[in-house]
Amino acid sequence: MPHPIMFSDDDPYLAEVRAIALALPDAVEAVAHGRPTFRCGKMFGNYGGSVKGGVRHEQSLLFIPDPVERAALIGDRRFYVPAYFGPAGWLGILLDDDTDWTEVTELLDASYRQVAPKRSVAKLDEAG
Question: Class of the 12-121 domain?
Answer without folding.
Answer: alpha beta
